[in-house]
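OP here, attaching both records as promised.
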Amino acid sequence: MNEKKFNKWFSLFILIGMAVAVTCATALKLVNADGTARTLLLVSAFGALMGVLSAVCSANGKIITFLFGLLDVSVYGAVCFFNWRNGGPGLGNALLHFLYFVPMQFVGFAQWRRRGRNKAGSVKARRLKPRGALLFTLSFFAATIIVYFVLLQFDRSGAETFLRWAVLLDALPLVCNVLGQLLLSTAYAEQWIFWIGVNVFSIAMWSVTLAGHPDSSYAVIYIIKYCFYLANSSNGLRIWLKLSKDSDAVTEVLENE
């Protein structure tokens, strides 16, 4: 199977698998849900499906990712805020999505249009230079420490341990999201390293939420969502490394002409 067919079938696997998993999980949880819980389940399911469409399009370098992304981040921000209001983690992610991700969908759309597309219709990807990679690495550690202590002031978990795990699990995906979105909007392949981090930390965050708050049934939707995202982001890293090599090869040819 050549790469084009593999990417096609892998994308279909992610889309269909996510749709089936979300539908089944939502149907099972709706049986015992009522009122606000039912509404949150349905809204979360819709947002999760929009999110996986955005993630698959992003992995393949398609600019329509920003349309689905706008719907996804709006819904997710609202659910995170509600989760925090009920005593769980999520404030950092709620603020992140409303104040950063929503406007960055428009920024990314404009940036990708300026960069142009290759013959396959994918964005012309690029790679960070060593200095840029070091800068993003240091920024990750510094920002995580700063965000942790800021969110600590809003912690409502009541934990008395030295390290507040709920706060840390809120800070880590927040920082990865910020850096990943910045690299996504400017078409750098290294974005996928941060998206993998987002997915791993988000799975942990929502697992903690579900374990500590049994009535938070909507958390199941996000655990499923980020498991599929993790698979997609791993494939996205592979695709974008190739896209960036192809773009470098084209640039080199043009410069030598």
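Record two, same layout:
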Amino acid sequence: MKTLNRDIRFIFLAVLCGVASACSFNSGRRNDDFTVIMLPDTQNAIDFRRQTAEGFAIDSSDIFIEQMQYIAGRAVANGGDVAFVASVGDVWQHVNSQTDPEHVKRGITAIPNHDHPAVKRFIAADGTLNIEIPKAIEGYQIISEASIPFGVAPGNHDYDAWWALDATPPNSQIEGLDPSLEDAPIDVTLHVGGLSNFRSAFGSDTDFFHDRDWYLSGFEGGGSSAQIFSAGGYRFLHLAFEMHAGDDVVEWAKGVIDQHLGLPTIISTHDFLNPRAERLAASGMDLALVDPEGNNSAEKLWQDFISETDQIFMVLSGHRPGQAIRIDRNDQGHEVYQILADYQSRQQSALDTGEPPVKGPAAPFTGDGWLREMVFRLGGDDPIIDVRTYSSHFESYSSELDTYAEWYKDLEQPDMTDEEFLAAEEFTIELSDFHSRFGMPSDAHRHN
């Protein structure tokens, strides 16, 4: 099984100049090219504890604001090429409760130990409501004022409540355990509930989306949402799914798709791939395992929805520190590109300013301003996407930093060589069947 996982994870390395290639990056740009920004987990940058007011060496939220300013500066409205921003969630760090009334009604309640350390560490009502959520709104306001359409998928940290439940096997036997459970008692898993906080920032009726012609609809007020944007001669549909979306979200999404048949569709959701490119949840927080009535696993979403819906060609996710790409054919024989990128555990920006290099939950994680740029080049006979990884803090692409692998590889992909790690951050996806699925570009859909 481990050999199979490794083969999947390195699909773009094994085929080299095939479907997803690390050797064919094209730095030249045509007029029809456009960029979609994939914005991974920003939770540590926004964390109220990682600011100078709390004794941290820097205001890490400045790194988040720098990211948003960088994106806005490249907006189509500002003469750039960024046509859409897809956030994969964990926008902020803390929750404000350890109980969710809706789950309590269904009997999914906490274990008696309400001081469970993995829960206690992330409950901070004042910091969440008064610092982190307002900072998130401030950052996305920069994107909004640049007239960039965007969608935000809520991550587990964006829910209102966390609580602990009994689980098996013991934590010591769980591979890839969520870092928040490192010092937890055995036989425990975490669950989440409630999206009131998230809807207060990114709900359908907020100023970000109300009356915007590119915002189509939101499920139950915007916990999941749908957007549309035009670029490169196509209209695209984007669906932002809540974590481990349940059947009700899927039915809503099917209705949105039925109203927009034939549009190339991207799904952003918080947890879909792990760093080995498997569609497996972390055992420490497996929402579908705990609550199958309300949640679907990534594999079930693939089998029962994504693989059956031919216009979905891409799935973006975060949650699991690291990066991966997986390419599968759907039921119609067309390729679906599944991409993981999560840089939340990067900390060089803090180490550079004097924070000690401690390990575990106290490590000075900031994210270092890294994000994914996906440059769509759809106008030629062979449509492609060039993927690059950029830090607005270091003002560099991953390939431009000699220390990149030294800084990050051992934490995120210890089994990779330096060359493999660098190739995982800068590669080209060949969209072999894009034109046959969605037609040739149209002059009517060059940009919004």
